[in-house]
Structures
1.
Amino acid sequence: MGTKRHFRVWRGDESGGEIQDYDVEVNEGEVVLDIIHRIQATQSPDLACRWNCKAGKCGSCSMEINGMPKLGCMTRMSTFEANETVTITPLRTFPVIRDLVTDVSFNYEKARETPAFAPPAGVKPGQYRMQQVDVERSQEFRKCIECYLCQNTCHVVRDHEENKPEFSGPRFFIRAAELDMHPLDARTDRKEFAQASMGLGYCNITKCCTEVCPEHIKITDNGIIPMKERVVDRRYDPLVWLGRKIFRRDQLESGHAGEMTPSVTAGVTGVAAGLGPSGARPPQGPPLGPDGRMEVSELIASNAGGPSPFGDDQEFPLPGSELTYRHPAPGKDAAPPSSH
């Protein structure tokens, strides 16, 4: 037998609404989404709530619980005090359709505006080869379930509706960061596009998005901040600014269009960190333009630039002789013939 608990749920639509009070039975082990379903079953069958998997993997049941953006299916009732009133409201950043259901089409519009992965020229699907360390760099961002809690809590659009046309939000910043780190992505302007067209400069890295992520993605530390650093390196470095005043644009940008910036994240090693196969950075001079001149940003660099993410002597795609995976031979796992 459960215990009676007090809940306050927002009811209404785009024209307005109000908080309604419910006394609902709560059983051991239940989550907030269970309570929503019980209210629907016993008191308000017209209560609207979006949900799907009830396993924290579809991102559908996003709502605000006691003012904090959360997934209803992953918020256990045991986390609240026995006499605590639980207030459930729709996502504040997006227009309300009805009750707890909001119109999140803003996010799908921004997804369409984000440039997709660009396959490398001359390489067919099935021939892509990546170092494991490069896979690990962007794998974290692939865990996103698109619950849009990060989008909802970001104050850039939460408190400023007028910013929505220019601002894509943290969910799509990590998408851009993932592709910027991807060694097989043919586009070389991910960070510049994020700055110019996605509103990366609006973000002041308060880490609100990271705090509410149900997949515990380090959105700010591993995605947004590195992207901002790479933008600053190329666009706002005072020496680069001076170089733009002295040299032509093609002199400044030659030799760097296809390179990936070596990672500076702790724990990243190998080729992705700008290191050779032995783990030590090989001696290498700074890159030169077609006219033999160094970029002005290299004049005071303490270390020479790293090699290509694929290594200096890497053949691409990898020849079959260097692949570590082999398909099992036909019949390899078949049962041996009977001796009878």
Note: The longest helix spans residues 219-235.
2.
Amino acid sequence: MVYIRQRQLPKLHEYKYAGVDHSLLSKYILKPFYTNVAIKFFPMSMAPNAITLSGFSFVIINFLTLLYYNPTLDKDCPPWVYLSWAIGLFLYQTFDAVDGTQARRTRQSGPLGELFDHGVDACNTSLEVLLFAGAMNLGQNWHTVLVLFGTVFTFYIQTWDEYHTHQLTLGVVSGPVEGVLTLVVVYFITYLKGGASYWQQPMLPTLGLPKTDLMPQGLYQQSWGEWYILYGGLVLLFNTVTSAQNVMKACRERGEDPYKALLGLAPIALTWILIPTYLALNPVILNQHLVPFVIFAGLVNAYSVGQMIVRHLVKDRFPFKNVLLIPLALAIGDSLAPRLGLWSSVLGDDVYQVSFVFLMLGLAFGVYGSFVHDVITTICDYLDIWCLTIKHPYVEGKQDPNVHALKHERKQH
């Protein structure tokens, strides 16, 4: 499948990064650290995308340790594992932030960098959900699904916001900054407390706060993990409302129908109708094989936001289709059929159902991998650049590589 048409390629030359970060933590602590300290560890010869990918490797290592020590998400790991997760995630965030600084100082900023950065962030999202669930012993249940929902929905909303406003807006509290650092702190505290079972204690009694007559017993006895999910839900609601306001304001300023832009939320709404429906119909997946399903759901979201970013770069229409939802819808139909008296389930509720989840996972890797390969090779060929190495190093007084690419295009025409 072709994701960027030849007629759309000239739009890549109009690319200009636009971003607003309202985070005080980022402004006064993180950005000075990135620009004055962290960037000095990376040579000028290193491509920005190579930095991004190197940072993601720390998350992959963290995920592999999770699979080895706690594949069911409900057991305590050796304390050093949680420390390695905290360090790995902090390094990922640092590398993810420094790649932009590296792109500017090596004069390698371009549309491929934004696409690559968002793509890696999208893949990291579902992995961090599993790591967080493992760090809090949430287990394979609806609590982990709720965390997945909040995380991928937030990522989708921010990308949808960027598509319509033409700039990435991070609020006072955002996932890439405060959200990631919150996870780092959670992992580090888990290390100090010696295991994830610490978070299964009721939070308010652990803090020594007395119960009042107005507070229900169930609320008073909620665990740390349940309170975190509640906190995440409030942040999600705030970010969703804020992004919707940003999008509607931008559309009105351009004279466009603001309510038409809201239709861009339909794909994520459909996705999150199908996902809980499938899991409710198949408790064997929810309670015993949630890890591969979460990775599948993460790739579904990564494919959606990846298409959005590509359409944003080439200024094309909003993408509503996601082929990866088709097998999920078919599986739901197969599970509903016997309940409606239509036909016996083909997949059943045992080994064939589990096999189908891994089949969907394999399909997701194939479709998303094909998307990534096609888009990267198309952009690299057109702009005359390489993805993970610098093809045209910047030399003071010499021509900018993007100008070289533009002249190359004109010569071809």
Note: The longest strand covers residues 19-21.
